[in-house]
Every structure is written in structure tokens, then in C-alpha cells.
Amino acid sequence: MPSSVELYPVVLLWLQTLGITSHRTALAALAHLLTALLVGQSLRSAALMRALLSLTPVPARQRFKRLARAWTRPWLTSAWLTPALVRAALALVPPEPLGRPTAGLTHLALDSVRCGSWEVFTLGVVWHGRVLPVGWAVLPYPWPTGTFTPTVCALLRQVAAAWPLGRPAHLVADRAFPSRPLFQTLQALGWGWTVRLRAKSWVTVAGQPQWARALLATARVGGWTVQPAAYGGGAAAIPGTVIVGRSRPLVPRHQRGPGSLRQRAAQQARRQRHLATKHPGRGPDASAQTDAWVIWFTTHAAWPAADASYRQRWASEGSYRDAQSGWDGQHGWDLEPTLGRLRQAPQVEAVVGLWALGTLLQSWVGDQVGQPTVPAAVQAVRREWTTTGRLSGWARGRLALTEPSGRLRPWLLETLAAGAHHLAAAAPPPPLRQAG
């Protein structure tokens, strides 16, 4: 694996290409921090401080103070990084290819993850089953009354301000997010959407206002019902399409063994017990009857496109797992325990910003090491990692960065440098922002 001394110059090249700041000291400090993340593979303060590059020996206490100062700087906030991250993500991620129902679109996944006493909202560009975070917002949990939807809408507007007009965007989100302000914001931004509705969402179909649950009466298993509709009622209703269905469960081939089926059945039983005890004192919960059904509100006119779009939503779940515990519970970046120890929102936002930058670089490495055109020596190393080849781009990037024999070191440094040059050619950096 490359050392901090070897990795720092190419990381600095990436940050210069992104055009984050013209302040040389700030740029160097951020490159040191990002290099420490890629070398230490953890957001924990102890791991970062040990991996921080220093020309002379520095005591651990001083390294911790150096980290504490980094969390107070502006260049790790979403307001500062979003323009650069949007430009980088769109330069690296092509639109959906021709021949697909969603051809020409770029999907953005909106989701949130709870880390201790914090709720982190993220908006990311979907790429190879994961997301590249381009914007985020933080709220304390429990959320202060009346802050959820305004925070989400502000996050959408922040990312849209950096989004190029000629790149069609399509937002996907789950049942936690639908609201009239959300759809009004998306409509004003000119973005498409596919959002799953709750059974208690209020919709207008064929001129008749009703709860979304009422649509299940005409739905059928294995098929889809597509109807022009509007979210809400009256003059302020948002036009779109409602798609209702319940697809047959499709279990991947590698999860059809008796052990996997037992685990799946136990997971479903735990979920039903959780739903039964979620709201003690209330009447019977209808979730057991409605949870298996899908009700989408979308700008797509046909169900294949809506289905293809909504499948992209799960990319955020994989990215959250990478950021927290990894694919096996041991090889993640420890986002949850790191944020759980913080007491101030700006510090939380800064750590998430470092995660977003690190995900960008590591995912690029993982994408490149998975290409069929890499040298034979690189392919030989890649075949040592798994018998099935089922690794996410983020996981491949981690394994490439931490490969212990050093066989990938020359290729890795060349690839990172080539990525920065590709980014500069695809989207030339804007005038550098002034720090402070």
C-alpha cells in the first residue's frame, strides 16, 4: 500500500483540480487530512491523527489538536464543497446509456442516516450501485419541530445551484420524504422524480381526492397500475403519475440456499415484531398489509422507467454501510461512532464532508481497478480478493489502496494522477475560491 508521503502529491493534485480554494495552507491541510483517510481507512480521530503526514515527529496530543482545528474550517462544509463535488461527479459518471428506459438521465438518491444524536441527510449521484455524495445537511435527533422538510428542500436547492442546466437530473427517495413542498421544489428546479408514497399520502386520481391506500384495491400482484394523478388536492396539487404494484420477490442465485432462506425468514419475523410494537397503545398497524406494495409518484409516464429509476435508491444504503461498518462489519470508515461522539453540528458536517471527498477518490480507484483493460498484473491481484467478483467499486478501491504487497503501488499512483487529469479535461476547474 502507498504511504502518506507517496499518496499526498496525487491527492493534492485532485484537490487543486477541483478548485476548492486558493489558500495554499488550507489546500495542503485538506490534502493531508484526505490522505490520512485513504491511508488509515477510518474517520475515527485516532486513525486519522496517526496517518497524518508530518515531516518531523509530532506528539499525539498535537496531532489531535491539528484535527480539531480542521473540523472548524469552512472548506469541509456542504456549502463550500458542493459545487466542486457536483462538477467532479458529473465528469466521472456518464448519463444512463441509450437503450435503457431512463436513457440520458443522471440519478440523484436522497436519503438520511442516523448516527448517534445526529440525522445526516445526503444527496448523491448514483454510480455503480453506490452514491457519490454531493450535498449534505445535519439535524440533531430528535428533529426540532418543523425542520425536516425545510432542511431537505434547502439541500435540493443547494445542489441544484451547482447543477448544469444541460444535464437532466432525476431524484429518487423513499417514503420518508414525500411532501407538497418537496415536489414544489423539484418542479421549480426542473428535475424529474420517482418517490415512494406512504399509504396515508393524499393524492388525486381521476379528479377524486383519496388516501394512497385506496389505490391498492385495484392493484394486482405481478402487475402495475399506471394512472395520471396529482399529489395533494385542489389548485396546489402537483401533477404526475401514480404507479401501484407488488412485484414478485426475486431472490439472487447466491441467496437461495437453505441458510440464506432461514436468515431471510428470521429477518422478516423481526421486522414484523418491530412493526407490531412500534406504536404501543395505538390500534392495529396496517403496515403488514401495505408494506409489500409499492406506490410511486413519478414524472415517468410508464412503469419500466419508474422501476428502473427507483432501483437506484438502494445505492445510498450500500454507501452508508461502506461509511459505517463495511461489507463485513469490520472494514468500514466508522462514520456512526465518529459522529456519535461529536456535540456540535459544524463538526459533524465537516466529518461528512471528508467522507464525501474520500468516497470520490476511492470510488474512482475502485472503478478503474475493475476495468477489463487494466494490465494483466493488476487483474491478477484483483482475482485474489474474492472468488465471486461481487465487490462494490468502493470496496475494490479500499482493497487497492491497502494491498499489502505493494504490487499495485505504481499503477495506483499513476491512476490517481490520470483521474485528476481526466477531471481537468472533462470539466476545467473554475476560478479558485478564496478561503476565509
Set down the secondary structure blueprint.
Layout: H1 4-18, H2 24-40, H3 45-51, H4 60-70, H5 78-92, E1 106-115, E2 118-127, E3 130-140, H6 148-160, E4 169-173, H7 180-189, E5 192-196, E6 202-205, E7 208-211, E8 224-231, E9 238-245, H8 258-277, H9 287-290, E10 294-298, H10 303-310, H11 315-324, H12 335-340, H13 345-369, H14 376-382, H15 393-401, H16 409-426
Parallel strand pairs: 1-4, 4-5
Antiparallel strand pairs: 1-2, 2-3, 5-10, 6-7, 6-8, 8-9, 9-10
Helix pairs in contact: 1-2, 1-16, 2-3, 2-13, 3-4, 5-13, 6-7, 13-15, 13-16
Q: Could you explain the architecture of this structure?
A:
By secondary structure, the chain is α+β, with helices and mostly antiparallel strands. The chain has a domain at 247-277 and 285-292. It contains 16 helices and 10 strands. The protein has a 10-stranded mixed sheet, with helices on both faces. Helix 7 (180-189) links the parallel strand 4 and strand 5. The longest helix has 25 residues, at 345-369. The chain is globular, with a radius of gyration of 23 Å. The model has no long low-confidence stretch (mean pLDDT 89).
